[in-house]
Amino acid sequence: MAGVGADGIVAGRRVRERHPDLVVEVAHPQIIQESGAQILHHANLLVGSPSALADQATEQRLLEASHRWDHAVFVARGALWGTEDITRLDAAGGLQSLRVTMATHPDGFRLEGPLAAVSSTEHRTVLYEGPVRGLCPFAPRNSNTMAAAALAAPSLGFDRVVGVLVADLSLADMHVVDVELTGPPGPTGRSFAVHTHRENPAEPGAVTGSATVTAFWRSLLGCCQLPSRPGIHLC
């Protein structure tokens, strides 16, 4: 991508000189954390690493820059199925809990910090279960679906959407994402519930499944047709 150096830091001067309408990040959340606000001075931004927004300071900088320079922050939904349904239910006050589980072979993970030291020699090992905000810093390339879910449900956000990361030795060529959500109890005491199960073929050891690449391309095409308005918008 033009304007990205070997060290992964966007060169703001080159972005300015090329007068882009849209800058697309698909490399690493560090790009967004360190240079996202600077990019918004010159162009709209499509974030391919939503896990960057788990950092509250980064999210705040992007929002401030977006409103100051009147540029949009688009966020690709990636492997998250049912994004619009989650957002609509949340906006209507009908979302009580949201849980996203991502499972794949251990070779498909790029983990950091304490998660990198967790042994996954068992057939199926839960590496993390808890708030998405706590997962993103240690699995920045494997938590983007969960981060997108947190953005789709702002009433829960990164602190109340639950992310589960599972190493499964049987999933050598597959990424599996389960999204489970519930609403408040109805008149009979039973709660509204949805559970989606997504199986995405992937090359052994790949971070991204094949269908997610297509989903990102559709997000790119889609955001080019959306109005440029300040704020953070899933696409």
UniProtKB/TrEMBL annotation:
**GO biological process: any one?**
NAD+ biosynthetic process
Where's the Aspartate dehydrogenase domain? 122-213
Matching entries from Pfam families are given as: Asp_DH_C, NAD_binding_3
Tell me the ranges covered by the Aspartate/homoserine dehydrogenase NAD-binding domain, including all copies. 19-75
InterPro entries named in the record: Asp/hSer_DH_NAD-bd, Asp_DH, L-Asp_DH, NAD(P)-bd_dom_sf
What Gene3D superfamilies does the entry give? NAD(P)-binding Rossmann-like Domain
Q: Please give one Gene Ontology molecular function term for this protein.
A: aspartate dehydrogenase [NAD(P)+] activity
**UniProt xrefs under PANTHER family:** ASPARTATE DEHYDROGENASE DOMAIN-CONTAINING PROTEIN (PTHR31873:SF6), L-ASPARTATE DEHYDROGENASE-RELATED (PTHR31873)
Name the record gives this protein:
Aspartate dehydrogenase domain-containing protein
Q: Which organism is it from?
A: Lynx pardinus
